[in-house]
Specification:
234 residues, alpha/beta
Length: 234
């Protein structure tokens, strides 16, 4: 059975963090990660984590999103952001994909801050973008409510889909490909030397959302290395 964690990026309300810790315990998720959480160790946080204070004690804290995603096979960014260039899936579809991962694989459900959600750059780090259906008159959810819905869907999918599919390239493996690809594109002059990361963001989003096997990823790594060598000969 796949393992999964909750990642809260720049959460603004300590009570929401505590409520999310309780939800992690409700569904037997692996743990809670906090990215740049600010001052979160408050009485209100511990109070809303009723019965799950140990989840808060064991929460991992990171300065930014990238290290929080190291080691995961799939990162799912929950967002209500509309972007014609990047497709999103229903949260139930994303949950089914997490459930299909093998027992050795780990997934991350990533949620942005209450007032603004995940940034474009943070969403580009996630292999999937997922949305929770809502009425257009009130499209946004409270952070802890969104986490509850997503975790319910994952737990439900795990119950109905116990058999893992074939292994797919993990988040970390794709990040290694992206490092090679960035080097190759720079060598060929296909990426500018200024604002490189801004221009590379679309490549990152493309690779992270692409479903490939480890063998297929090796082919792409081979091409990226060839690109870098060709650029050196120019």
């Amino acid at each position: 059975m796949a393992r999964f964690r909750v990642v809260l990026v720049r959460p603004e309300n300590a009570a929401n963090i505590g409520a999310c810790a309780r939800l992690v315990r409700n569904v037997a998720a692996e743990g809670l990660d906090l990215v740049a959480p600010g001052d979160w160790r408050t009485v209100e946080c511990w109070r809303t984590a009723w019965g799950a204070q140990d989840v808060l004690e064991e929460a991992r804290v990171f300065p930014d999103l990238a290290p929080a995603l190291e080691g995961v096979a799939l990162a799912v960014g929950l967002t209500g952001r509309r972007d014609a260039r990047a497709a999103s899936v229903d949260v139930r579809e994303a949950a089914a994909e997490i459930a299909s991962l093998g027992s050795e694989a780990a997934a991350a459900l990533v949620f942005g801050p209450e007032t603004s959600g995940l940034s474009v750059a943070e969403l580009a780090c996630c292999g999937r973008r997922a949305r929770i259906p809502s009425h257009p008159a009130q499209p946004s959810f409270n952070l802890s409510h969104a986490v509850a819905i997503a975790l319910y869907e994952v737990r439900r999918a795990l119950t109905h889909c116990p058999t893992a599919g074939p292994r797919r390239a993990s988040h970390d493996e794709k990040e290694r490909l992206l490092a090679l690809l960035r080097e190759g594109l720079l060598a060929l002059g296909a990426l500018p030397a200024h604002n490189t990361e801004g221009y590379f963001r679309d490549w990152r989003a493309l690779v992270q959302r692409t479903d490939v096997s480890p063998r297929e990823l090796k082919l792409l790594e081979h091409v990226a290395r060839k690109m870098a060598r060709a650029g050196e000969r120019q």
